[in-house]
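Exam review. A common question shows you a sequence with its C-alpha cells and asks you to describe the fold in words. Practice with the pair below. Do the first one on your own.
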Amino acid sequence: MRQGLALGIALLVALAGCGEAGDERPERRAAAPVADDPTRGLRARPTAVEPDVGLPAETEVQVEVPRDPEEHLARAPEGTIPDPPPTDAEVRAALKQIEGVPGRKARLNPDGTATAPEGAPEVVKQMIAAANSIARTPYLWGGGHGRLYDRGYDCSGSLSFAFIHAGLLDKPIAHGWRLMGRAGKGRWVTVYTNSGHVWMEVAGLRYDTSAIRLAGSRWTDRSRSTASFRSRHLPGL
C-alpha cells in the first residue's frame, strides 16, 4: 500500500512539473508571453516592401503615448489650412511616383513637401514620399498609434508612419526610438530622441512636428539644437 502511494505521489509530482522551466515543447514556447520590449517590431535591416505594410486603417489599439513637451510648437500658423489625412490609395500612389533631384540633399518644395535626391536608396525615397503624405496634417497627441491612417499625428506617430511605409517598422511605436539601431548619425536618416520628443533628419532635411509652426509642414530646412537628444540610425542608412 505504501509503495503504491509513493508511486502515485511521484507520478503527480512529475505531471505537475510539465510546462515549467524544463518543458521544451515548441508549442509551449510559442504560447509564452512576450516581454514588453519597446523595440519589438523594429526591423534590424532596411528592406523595401509593399506600401500597404502596417496596420489597416480601421484597426484600433490602445498605446501609452507620453505627452510631448513640444506639442505647443506644432500649431500651424494662422491662416494655414492643414491637409486631411491620406488614404491608403493616396499613399500607394505617392510611393509609385517617387521623383529625385540632383545631389545628395533632398529639396524642400514650396508646398511643404520634400523631393528625395536621385541617388538616395529606394527605402529613403519611400520614407520621404510617405512623410510627404502627412507632412501638413494636424498635430494630434496619440495620433498615428491607434490607427495608421489617422486624423492627425504626434511626433512618434509621424515617424512611425514614414518608417512603416518604407518597410522599416511593422507597427507604430512610442517609446522604442532611443534603442533602435545604432548610436550616432546615419548617412541618410538620423533619428533624434529624448524622453518626450522624437524627430528625424532625412537626406539633409528636418522632419519634425515642432516645425509645423514655421510654415504648416513637418518638413523644414531650418536646423535646431540637438543638445538634449540622442542620435540613432539603422545600419546601412
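Now try the second one, then compare your answer with the model answer below.
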Amino acid sequence: MCKLLKESCAALGSVLLILLGAAAPTAEATILQYDFANSGVFSGTVPTGSPGVYATAVFDDHGGTGNVTLTMSVFNNLLAGAYINDWYFNINSPSSLTGIAFNSGVAAASVDDTTACASNPPCGADGGGYYDFAFHFPTNNPGQLGRGNISVYDLTGTSFNASSFDLLSADHGGNGNHLAAVHVQGYASSAWLGGTVDEGGGGGSGGPLPEPASFALLGIGLLGVAIMQRRSRH
C-alpha cells in the first residue's frame, strides 16, 4: 500500500507541476483609450451632424514597457468631408519616448517628437495646453485622416507603458488643460476637441487563475484515479 501511494503521489506531483506552470499568470496589457466627441470642444465650431464619439486614440502596451502601439481612428459618423489633421498627446516623462515610427494605415505628413515639442514654441493646441508630441496629417486628399481611416504608430523608449500617456497638458492660452487634443477641419469651419478617457477601454490579456480550492479538488480526483488504475493492474 505504501509503495502504491508513493508511486501515485509521485505521478500526481508531476501532473500538478505541469498544471501550475500552465496556470502561471501572464503579464496583463494596459490599454488607455481617449474618446473625441463634440462635447469635448474647447475652441471653434463643432461639426454638426457628427453624433457621439467619432474618433479615438488607443495606447496599448501589450503587457510590457518601452513599446506602445498608438492607433488613431476616425469613425464613419464624422460629418462627411470632415477630417482630423492634428493629434496632440502627453507623456509623463518626455525623455523616455525616443522613437515614433509609422506602422500601418494612413501616415502623418509630419510628426513632432518630444524634442521638437520642447523647443520654442512648444506644441500648442489653440489655447488648450502645451503637449509633448503630435501628429499632423494632410489637409488635402490623398492623405487626410477622414471617415473610416486609421493610423498606427509604434512608440518606443524606456520605462513607460500605456498609463504613462494619461497626463494633462501644460497651461497655455486659457482654454483649459486636456489629456489629449485633436483638430477637426474640412467642413467650412474647424474645432479643437479635448479627449476623455474611455473607462471601458482598459483591459488585460491574462486569463483568470484557478483558486487553491480548485487545485485541491483536482489533486484528490487525480489521486483517486491513479489508485484505481494501479489496483486494476493487480
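Model answer, second protein: DSSP finds three helices and 14 strands in the chain. Residues 12 and 223 are 6 Å apart (CA to CA). Full marks require stating both points clearly.
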